[in-house]
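Give me structure tokens for this 398-residue protein.
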Amino acid sequence: MPIPARPHRDDVLIAVIGLFSGVCLTAVGLYMRRGRPFDSPWIPLAPLVAMSGLELLRRSAPQTALVIGTFALIADQFTAGNLATVVMFTDLMYAAVVYGTPAAARRIPVTTFLITVAVTIGFLAWFRTAEALLIGIVTGLVSFAPAITGVSVRNHRDAAETARLRADQTALLAEMDRTQAVTAERARMARELHDMVANHLSAIAIHSTAALSIDDAATSRDALGVIRHNSVEGLAEMRRLIGLLRTGSKESEPSVAPTLAALDALIEQTRTNAAPSGLTCTLQDARTEQGALPAPVELAAYRIVQESLTNALKHGAPGPVVVRLGRAGPLLTVEVTSVFGDRPGPRAPGSGAGLVGMTERVALLGGEFEAGPVTTGGEAKIWRVRAELPVEERAVQE
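Here you go.
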């Protein structure tokens, strides 16, 4: 700990008060003893001045001040003595424990206790009178008592500092948890927003491009009809998402999350949107168990199918798009395959967020996910999305 450039103002105040009090006691002739080798009334001022000067070091160099102060106190015993010198020494003893090193704070109380015991026993053996106990009591009051007081104060300060650090750490952890929760909620909102509107916006982009590229009234009319339908559906989805976010509003209640029962409508809508691109969509439900699934699993499976169909609409070549559902024991299997390759006509641009969102959904539920081209016996390249979702409640819910 670096020594400050100047003493603390409280230390200066203690030194001034101690010196002034000692001078006043000397001026009125109040001494502690008589018959000492140096019995002149003004000689006790030397230890007094030294002790008051050491008070300036009580915070910056407490152990050094205590050592020098001990010699000053011993010197004071050969004079008439000054009460202010003794009182300031007790303060140096206290400060050495409070502001000194942890090792000094442990050693000083033990040392002063042993000194008190040794002085008491020594003077009892020398004088062999009960009055010798008073010397031991005075020694304890001057050395051991302030040391113990310093230990108590230091322990309280250390406990308060530990509590403050623990409170700061708790606040930091709470802030980290809040930040992580906000990040997770933003990621969830991003997935929901992407999955809900990407299908509709992709259909709008493809059919609007077709309407602009093909100079045919019937084709434009059909494309505009699809555009209007998907615009209305996308707007409804957005309103449902806003309803989920505005939980404090009485005007919008949270909507029910989509389930696998709504896949037929999703397949039919995709079939209509994908017809001009030469894609045909079918659903194959091969589940052997038709029991209810946990809501997070139903939502994740629906969103995976929805995003896979959106990707097929954006990038798939003409051909079949097959959605397969299977359930065996604790796993729900979702698989979507489509023809992968070049195709004529307009395409909607992709951002890659869809695969990231599907991966995150499956990871949150503790399942397995894979997406990529697979080899088949035919000439067509197949793009397959496959997810295995645990149907037990051990999954992490959104």
